[in-house]
């Protein structure tokens, strides 16, 4: 029997509110509890206020296909917003904004992939991810799966060369050993949501130099900082 309340996809609970992302009848519904303390705990998935769905503004999008998120099969989740998925027999990586405040990271990463289009430094952007069968409701993107191993200190020279190339377009912004794959084509960078594009107000040579100088320590780090769930 189908649960009339739908399937809970994501929950973000805080002291001041609770946010839900629910799939029901092949639709994605967002709800927002503004005063969770006045609602009994066992009722919190029933008494809610509907919130306006979020979307990447159209002016950030280019000529890539749209794929409905319901057409994807999740293989496993790497992090809360990142999953390895299957679509039309192809394995890819999916990243989404579950809630409106996460949209800024998706927008930034989409812009980074646009700036690096055709480069072997990053995976190929395959599609924008729409929700509830609406092409104008973009909440994420799909990129090719990276085939390779995580970078280590022994890869410093090749990673330095690749980072210098990357810096012609952007500063990564969240560089760690888990965000660099060593592939047959050389280093491949992932997780670009904190990137800073060349020519923007936040860009500076100092930012670029700081990232370059910190690369060796990032590759030598054994703390596990930035490590996805499966590592």
From TrEMBL:
Domain of life: Eukaryota
Enzyme class, first EC level, given as a word: transferase
Catalytic activity: L-threonyl-[protein] + ATP = O-phospho-L-threonyl-[protein] + ADP + H(+); L-seryl-[protein] + ATP = O-phospho-L-seryl-[protein] + ADP + H(+)
Keywords from the UniProt entry: ATP-binding, Kinase, Nucleotide-binding, Serine/threonine-protein kinase, Transferase
InterPro entries referenced in this protein's UniProt entry, alphabetically: Kinase-like_dom_sf (IPR011009), RIO_dom (IPR018934)
Transmembrane segments: none
Gene3D superfamilies for the chain: Transferase(Phosphotransferase) domain 1
Pfam family, one: RIO1
Keyword Zinc among record annotations: no
RIO-type domain segment(s): 167-204
Enzyme Commission number: 2.7.11.1
Protein name: non-specific serine/threonine protein kinase
Organism, as annotated: Bionectria ochroleuca
Lineage of source species: Eukaryota, Fungi, Dikarya, Ascomycota, Pezizomycotina
């Amino acid at each position: 029997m189908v649960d009339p309340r739908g399937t809970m996809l994501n929950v973000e609970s805080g002291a001041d509110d609770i946010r839900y992302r629910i799939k029901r009848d092949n639709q994605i519904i967002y709800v927002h509890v503004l005063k969770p303390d006045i609602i009994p705990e066992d009722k919190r998935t029933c008494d809610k206020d509907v919130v306006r769905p979020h979307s990447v503004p159209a002016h950030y999008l280019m000529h890539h296909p749209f794929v409905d998120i319901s057409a994807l099969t999740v293989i496993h989740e790497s992090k809360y917003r990142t999953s390895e998925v299957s679509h039309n027999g192809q394995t890819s990586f999916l990243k989404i904004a579950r809630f409106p405040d996460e949209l800024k990271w998706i927008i930034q990463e989409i812009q980074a992939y646009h700036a690096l289009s055709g480069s072997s430094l990053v995976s190929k952007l395959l599609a924008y991810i729409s929700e509830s069968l609406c092409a104008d409701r973009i909440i994420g993107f799909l990129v090719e799966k990276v085939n390779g191993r995580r970078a280590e200190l022994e890869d410093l020279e090749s990673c330095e060369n690749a980072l210098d190339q990357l810096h012609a377009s952007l500063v990564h912004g969240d560089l760690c050993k888990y965000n660099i794959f060593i592939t047959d084509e050389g280093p491949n960078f992932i997780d670009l949501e904190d990137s800073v594009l060349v020519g923007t107000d936040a860009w500076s040579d100092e930012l670029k130099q700081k990232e370059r100088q910190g690369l060796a320590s990032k590759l030598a780090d054994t703390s596990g900082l930035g490590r996805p769930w499966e590592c």
